[in-house]
Amino acid sequence: MKEIFSTVAFELSPGERIAISVRRGEALRVSGERVWVTRSNDAVDYFLHDGDALSLRADETLWLSVDGLGTSRVTFALAAGTGHRLATVFRRWWDKAPIPAAGGKLGMRIG
């Protein structure tokens, strides 16, 4: 069996904003509250509702925040062969990340 995609998922809380640098990825999918996405080199902001997906571009930065009162689960579908490495980097970052105050910003790079 050949791996086609891997995923990395996390939960985003109201008032929390994060920046994510994506080296390689296929799509970002949202479940739960609506998520506000701003991406590098793009003049348009995106509002992803429960079940929506956004195709990712190589070497872009995304800024994400919940646009509502509840939490949202954000899932990245990653290209074949990159999933384990990206998931490991994400997990290390998450374990060391400070808990932000309301309105705080956190950033990470996956890949």
General description of the model:
- It is a single chain.
- The protein is mainly β and 111 residues long.
- The chain has a single domain, classed as Jelly Rolls, CATH 2.60.120.
- 13% of the residues lie in helices and 48% in strands.
- The strands form 2 sheets. Strands 5-4-7-2-9 form a 5-stranded mixed β-sheet. Strands 1-8-3-6 form a 4-stranded antiparallel β-sheet.
- It starts with a strand and ends with a strand.
- The C terminus is likely disordered.
Q: What is the spatial order of strands in the main beta sheet?
A: 5-4-7-2-9
Q: Unreliable segments (pLDDT under 50, ≥5 consecutive)? A: 83-94, 98-111
Shape descriptor reads: globular
CATH architecture classification: Sandwich
Identify the CATH homologous superfamily: Jelly Rolls
Terminal CA distance: 24 Å
What is the overall pLDDT average? 76
